[in-house]
Amino acid sequence: MDKQLLRREGFATIEAIKPEEKASASVAICRQLADTRVFRKAEVIFAYLSMTSEPTLESLFSTYPQKRWGFSRINDEGLLEFHHVTGISQVAVGEYGIFEPDPKQCKKLTPEEVNLILVPGVAFDASNGARLGRGRGHYDRYLAKVASTPEPAHIMGVCFANQLTSLNPEEHDVPMDRIITEKGIVQHVATTNLIDPAGA
Predict the structure, then answer these.
(1) Domain with 173 in it: what CATH number?
(2) By CB distance 3.0 to 4.6 Å, which of 52, 56, 76, 169 could disulfide with 130?
(3) What whole-number distance in Å separates Cα of residue 102 and Cα of residue 85?
(4) What's this model's pTM, rounded to 2 decimal places?
(5) pLDDT, tens digit (0-9, with 9 covering 90-100), for 174-200
(6) CA pseudo-torsion sign 172, 161, 26, 3
(7) Domain count, the chain
(8) Residues of the domain holding 149
């Protein structure tokens, strides 16, 4: 599998989506996600502050303040971590030019604390839960920690529908439990793909 080629194709696919289509798709993703049983039950949710290439989830943060939200940042050692955010004033533009929590204001949360982690990516495979990231391995390393906890969190990939493609997972990859797009929630099963109803 030529990951560099797949990334180029993935970014080209995302760039072809018009801004207004991304906005409406993000609204649909948030609505469907909020209706899932796993979201309703989750007390601690790890998410991301979106870049232009990613579905926007920030409305969930403002709509469900009773949840304990952790947002991602890359620390000084180049490792992914999540910090508890309670207000927009605790977020600033980081070293990589994207919004992230201010570690001076926000407590770091651990992989053992999270119930649901929402994961962005360049491409996903609905048949096996595989994810293609940006190539730095930040999420790969963190998800391995999550998967090794006594009670692993539910891992859900988040993307636009046209980011779904065919991927061959590598041995170290941690698959998504489900993948959510504006068209529905896909649960990968060995023999078929199921579009879960809202109660999933």
Answers:
(1) 3.40.50.10420
(2) 169
(3) 9
(4) 0.90
(5) 999 999 999 998 875 443 333 444 455
(6) positive
(7) 1
(8) 3-196
